[in-house]
């Protein structure tokens, strides 16, 4: 494929995106968290192309995007806990992992052979419009080459996947900036990935604490690979100063920062800036030092992504 179309955020753009998807094509769509690389979740060829375009290992399952609770119930065994969480936070940055129903017609590549399925109803108006128009389930991982920084702008998507996918639906910059929070509801409610919905809000809605997923647990989020979100350069965390040759990604009122996630120390602003600033500060050579970020609210997701960015490369 030679060229990736940049589609306008209007009825014409939605119609063209929808036509590509019906043809088994790949379309990057804006969501409130990050851009997702969407394909028809019932079409084996289309889903296989997601893995090829991203260079994603086949054992790493995909999230299926739906319009809401009713649509999700077609694909998964619903539960009271699911009702409580989706009722409070859908559409929004929350993914639920639930038992997969039998004979759904979804491509088995979506679940990578697991007996559970991740479902999410995104809140972004363009993602919602596309799901309504397509009128079916869209499998969509983040629209970046596997292992690299997630995209929060059409420019990021084009830089990573341009020429390998049919189109990008232009929704500008994503508001939340980190991926959805993933909760497993197939046994006791478990936080599988911190994300754009703070743990504190989830536990309040559930009326109980969530169990924490530990690496090495039998059932896991297979995509939680150690090295992920990797910039070209190395990353040093909890930096209280900038060393020779480094670039400093600041948080709060720190001196000498090359870029600052939030000079005022606001975690929502920092999450929205995280991936764009990692993209921007990365020259592929200069080591990146990052100021400490508090580990509560959205800080939990920010620190999770930063730890993976800093992890030894596999
Ligand atoms: O905000 C988001 O969640 C974005 C937007 C596009 O919706 N999507 C996203 O997808 O972050 P992806 O593929 O980059 O991350 C999905 C994570 C992976 O770590 C994957 O392993 C995990 O969800 N996952 C998917 N299905 C699962 C399942 N059945 N059980 C456990 N983990 C699952
Ligand atoms: Mg991803």
From TrEMBL:
Recorded catalytic activity of this chain's protein: L-threonine + hydrogencarbonate + ATP = L-threonylcarbamoyladenylate + diphosphate + H2O
EC numbers for this chain: 2.7.7.87
Protein name: Threonylcarbamoyl-AMP synthase
Annotated residues for binding of ATP: 56, 60, 116, 150, 193, 229
GO MF term list: ATP binding; double-stranded RNA binding; L-threonylcarbamoyladenylate synthase; tRNA binding
Any GO BP: tRNA processing
Family: Belongs to the SUA5 family.
One Pfam family of this chain: Sua5_C
Keywords, comma-separated and alphabetical: ATP-binding, Cytoplasm, Nucleotide-binding, Nucleotidyltransferase, Transferase, tRNA processing
Domain of life: Bacteria
YrdC-like domain boundaries: 11-197
Subcellular location(s) of the protein: Cytoplasm
Provenance organism: Rhodalgimonas zhirmunskyi
């Amino acid at each position: 494929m030679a060229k990736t179309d940049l589609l306008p955020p209007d009825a014409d753009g939605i119609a063209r995106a929808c036509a590509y998807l019906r043809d088994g094509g790949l379309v990057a769509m804006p969501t409130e968290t990050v851009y997702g690389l969407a394909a028809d979740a019932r079409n084996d060829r289309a889903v296989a192309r997601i893995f090829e375009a991203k260079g994603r290992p086949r054992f790493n399952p995909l999230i299926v995007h739906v319009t809401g609770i009713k649509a999700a119930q077609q694909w998964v065994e619903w539960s009271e806990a699911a009702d409580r969480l989706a009722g409070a936070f859908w559409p929004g940055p929350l993914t639920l992992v639930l038992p997969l129903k039998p004979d759904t017609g979804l491509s088995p590549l979506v679940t990578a052979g697991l007996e559970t399925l991740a479902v999410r109803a995104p809140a972004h108006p363009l993602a919602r419009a596309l799901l309504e128009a397509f009128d079916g389930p869209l499998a969509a991982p983040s629209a970046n080459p596997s292992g690299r920084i997630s995209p929060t702008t059409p420019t990021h998507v084009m830089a990573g996947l341009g020429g390998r996918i049919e189109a990008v639906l232009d929704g500008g910059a994503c508001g939340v900036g980190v991926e959805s929070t993933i909760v497993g509801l197939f046994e006791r409610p478990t936080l599988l990935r911190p994300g754009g919905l703070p743990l504190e809000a989830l536990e309040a809605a559930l009326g109980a604490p969530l169990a924490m997923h530990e690496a090495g647990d039998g059932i896991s989020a297979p995509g939680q690979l150690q090295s992920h979100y990797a910039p070209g350069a190395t990353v040093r965390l909890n930096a209280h100063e900038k060393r020779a040759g480094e670039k400093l990604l600041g948080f709060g009122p720190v001196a000498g920062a090359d870029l600052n996630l939030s000079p005022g120390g606001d975690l929502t602003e920092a999450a929205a800036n995280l991936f764009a600033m990692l993209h921007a500060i990365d020259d592929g050579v200069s080591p990146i030092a990052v100021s400490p970020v508090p580990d509560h609210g959205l800080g939990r997701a920010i620190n999770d992504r930063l730890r993976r960015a800093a992890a030894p490369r596999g």
